[in-house]
Amino acid sequence: MDFRLLEYFLAVCEELHFTKAAVQLGISQPTLSQQIRLLEERVGMPLFQRIGKRNYLTEAGQTLKEHALNIFHELEQAQSEINELKGMQRGRLTIGCSGNHLLTRTLISFHQKQPGISISVVELATEETRAGLLANKLDLGVVFLPLEDEQLVSKELYTEELCLAVAKQHHLAATEVVKLDQLTEVPLILFPEKFLVRQMVDSYSAQAGVQLQPAFELSTMDSMLQMVRLGVGATILPRSYLVQGSDPSIRTVPIVEPVPQKKVGIVYRKQTFLSTAMLAFINELIRTFTPSGTESV
């Protein structure tokens, strides 16, 4: 089967729109449609069906998509191994992360040691990172664990704890610790439900026998802290982020009984070839987060 046809097919899978996919590929829409018809003739079944104004993958299309992604993944792995044999000193890593602040120290130290490797970090929810790894759009993820998937390998880095963040003039700012049941009457600014931090808040609240209803749902930690600075309400965020910011206008208060906490770790595909660059970055992460800094992959 022509790899070009599979490339065209995956572009349509991503867009589910022939005109947009054609623009992405730099070809005309009639040409793309003709190539997809040719691919359908070769596999002997329709790959897309149109319902109303939208295109959907058929069962055969879904099957081909899964195998096509694996084919291109294997080609990329082969190229990575060949590059290693050639002693390539340059490269690129794409990383999905549950919070960019988690990687700041590692990025700085890694760049000092490997200046020829460029790194793109995308802040994503944990499930979005999982999807990106399985679709071969990411090389590595730094996420909350566990992330259950038989196609992924995970390695723990450290335990993250959630804390309350309030403005220094807030009535809870002077307290040493706070319980979740004390927050039922406090206007809260939380992540939307798709984010694991929010799911942690909801889970631990249920354990404490309370239900916390946010006054606002925002998708970035910076925007949440800005609302806190303005005195709009309080938020619950990872301690690592709050400590790193060390904003004098914000007070960080530990949450107890129970303490909301979860493991943070590295994830990558089982079948991924671990290049020198990727291994070096993983080991730099381990050195950053483990007390001894001696453990490595």
In summary, what is this structure?
The chain has helices spanning 3-15, 18-25, 29-43, 59-85, 104-113, 126-134, 196-207, 221-229, 239-245, 276-289; strands at residues 48-51, 54-57, 91-97, 117-123, 140-144, 152-167, 178-179, 188-190, 216-217, 234-238, 250-256, 261-269.
If you had to describe this structure to a student in words, what would you say it looks like?
This protein has 297 residues and is of the alpha/beta class. Helix content is 42%, strand content 24%. It has 10 helices and 12 strands. Strands 3, 4, 5, 6, 7, 8, 9, 10, 11 and 12 form a 10-stranded mixed β-sheet that branches. Strands 1-2 form a two-stranded antiparallel sheet. It is globular, with a radius of gyration of 23 Å. The model has no long low-confidence stretch (mean pLDDT 89).
Sheet with most strands: 10 strands, mixed
- DSSP, total strands: 12
What portion of residues belong to β-strands?
15-25%
Helix content: 40-55%
Low-confidence segments, given as residue ranges, are none
Helical region count?
Answer: 10
Q: What is the global morphology?
A: globular
Could you say which structural class the secondary elements and strand pairing correspond to? Answer: alpha/beta
Order of helices and strands: HHHEEHEHEHEEEEHEHEHEEH
Cα-based radius of gyration, to the nearest Å: 23 Å
